[in-house]
């Protein structure tokens, strides 16, 4: 029997996050390419970004044929958030980095596990047309309810929040607040000894 979902946030009625949402009027347009397997993941944060950002588009697919939007993005002012040895580090305060980020209009983000993100890269060669950006220092992971295999893992929401803070000096506190609400509501019915594993450290 399927769970009843909130018509707006698409979370179950018992974990509805509508009252926790706040809108960030971002200037940089976020383009999220989502692996289809992430759609039904109850802890997925990409959908929250579409509700919390004024400039955000989510496209579901696995291959270049699914992501025709890439053909229309301006190459010079679009970046791909992806760890790479040649990536421009957004938290590098040098003049060249500041000049690059100042002219950005679009940021592409891959939503999925590391393995799925790598597969998206392999099946979507058009992504290589854009310069890659990443972080020299990874902020503390606030996404307690979904265990990641790598220490430098961030949820899609956290990665976008940190990027917006670095690129356009946006205040990401509203995004972090809804993430904390997601943490709390997804663990609210757990036995106390299980819930303790997910408490903030």
Structure overview:
Residues 2-191 form the DTW domain. Pfam families: DTW. InterPro entries: DTW (IPR005636), DTWD2/TAPT (IPR039262). This is tRNA-uridine aminocarboxypropyltransferase. Belongs to the TDD superfamily. DTWD2 family. Helix 1 (46-52) links the parallel strand 1 and strand 2. Strands 2-1-5-3-6-4 form a 6-stranded parallel beta sheet. It has 6 helices and 6 strands; from the N terminus they run E-H-E-E-E-H-E-H-E-H-H-H. The protein is globular, with a radius of gyration of 17 Å. It has one domain: 3-Layer(aba) Sandwich (Alpha/beta knot), CATH 3.40.1280. The protein starts with 28 loop residues before the first strand and ends in a 6-residue tail after the last helix. With 201 residues, the chain is of the alpha/beta class.
């Amino acid at each position: 029997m399927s769970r009843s979902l909130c018509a707006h946030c698409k979370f179950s009625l018992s974990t509805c996050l509508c009252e926790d949402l706040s809108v960030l009027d971002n200037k940089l347009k976020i383009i999220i390419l989502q692996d289809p397997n992430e759609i039904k993941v109850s802890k997925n944060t990409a959908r929250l970004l579409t509700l919390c950002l004024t400039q955000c588009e989510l496209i579901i697919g696995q291959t270049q044929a699914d992501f025709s939007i890439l053909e229309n993005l301006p190459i010079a002012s679009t970046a791909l958030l992806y760890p790479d040895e040649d990536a421009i580090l957004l938290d590098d305060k040098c003049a060249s980095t500041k000049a690059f980020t100042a002219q950005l209009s679009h940021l592409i983000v891959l939503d999925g596990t590391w393995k799925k993100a790598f597969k998206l890269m392999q099946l979507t060669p058009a992504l290589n047309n854009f310069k890659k950006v990443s972080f020299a220092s990874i902020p503390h992971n606030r996404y307690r309810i979904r265990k990641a295999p790598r220490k430098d893992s961030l949820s899609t929401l956290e990665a976008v929040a940190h990027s917006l803070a670095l690129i356009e000096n946006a205040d990401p506190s509203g995004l972090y607040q809804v993430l904390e609400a997601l943490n709390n509501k997804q663990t609210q019915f757990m036995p106390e000894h299980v819930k303790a594993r997910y408490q903030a450290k």
